[in-house]
């Protein structure tokens, strides 16, 4: 079953066209990587899906047309976004950050603590005093606390130490295996994405130019489209 279907997405910043036709699907329980070199439109695609910027084309999520919905409505329909850069409330504790995001459903603070034990040990600590990796775990925890049907991670491990990146990948694999949550993930590391993603969509200059299981991505194409 297709959960998110994006068709012919176009978006501009002023006169500059950033997306000139992006189509992609995410199935129920599927982990899809959105890839491409710098500036190819990954973050813009996510911003348009989450209705944080106007766009043309069709976005259907869980059978509902999101195309003209404002972003707070999209969040309520079940899209949990972990945006680029860790957006936690520094002056609030971990528990308060999770409570502020909470919507009814199985994901509460206890379940987030089960996924990220390090956060569980720090429920009373101010978010501003967490390490970078812990803040990223909290950002993911906040998105999960909204009880989404689709989790979107935009460069969730950028700038983090290899060990923390591995911890977050483990959490993503657990989410997939244990909850069947659909996940759309933007990341630059092909090697790391191969560990978690079922399929990839690659963007080039605001268009999707490759779509398939990651194990079918040959080195020449990866080099051409990703510069790796
Ligand atoms: P990166 O991997 O560097 O984050 P990306 O694939 O996420 O890149 P986008 O951030 O979506 O790419 O950018 C797509 C295009 O839109 C780029 O040409 C970029 O310069 C442009 N762009 C992005 N944000 C803005 C903005 N706020 N104002 C003007 N142009 C923008």
UniProtKB/TrEMBL annotation:
Pfam families (UniProt xref): ABC_tran
Species this chain originates from: Jannaschia ovalis
Protein name according to UniProt: ABC transporter ATP-binding protein
Annotated ranges, domain ABC transporter: 4-228
GO molecular function: ATP binding
Coiled-coil zones: none
Keywords tagged on the record: Amino-acid transport, ATP-binding, Nucleotide-binding, Transport
UniProt family annotation: Belongs to the ABC transporter superfamily.
InterPro entries referenced in this protein's UniProt entry, alphabetically: AAA+_ATPase, ABC_transporter-like_ATP-bd, ABC_transporter-like_CS, BCAA_Transport_ATP-bd_LivF, P-loop_NTPase
Keyword ATP-binding: yes
């Amino acid at each position: 079953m297709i959960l998110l279907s994006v068709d012919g997405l176009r978006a501009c910043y002023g006169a500059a066209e950033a997306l000139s036709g992006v189509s992609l699907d995410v199935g129920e329980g599927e982990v899809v990587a959105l890839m491409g070199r710098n500036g190819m439109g990954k973050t813009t695609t996510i911003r348009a899906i989450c209705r944080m910027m106007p766009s043309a084309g069709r976005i259907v999520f869980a059978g509902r047309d999101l195309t003209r919905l404002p972003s707070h409505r999209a969040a309520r329909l079940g899209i949990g976004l972990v945006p680029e850069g860790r957006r936690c409330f520094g002056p609030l504790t971990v528990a308060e950050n999770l409570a502020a995001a909470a919507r009814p459903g199985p994901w509460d603070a206890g379940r987030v603590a089960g996924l990220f034990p390090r956060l569980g040990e720090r429920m009373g600590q101010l978010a501003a005093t967490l390490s970078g990796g812990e803040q990223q775990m909290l950002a993911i925890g906040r998105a999960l606390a909204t009880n989404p049907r689709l989790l979107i991670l935009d460069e969730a491990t950028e700038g983090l130490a290899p060990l923390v990146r591995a911890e977050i990948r483990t959490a993503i694999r657990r989410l997939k295996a244990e909850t069947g949550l659909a996940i759309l993930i933007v990341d630059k590391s092909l090697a790391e994405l191969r560990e978690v993603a079922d399929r990839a969509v690659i963007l080039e200059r605001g268009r999707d130019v490759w779509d398939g299981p990651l194990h079918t991505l040959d080195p020449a194409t990866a080099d051409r489209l990703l510069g790796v």
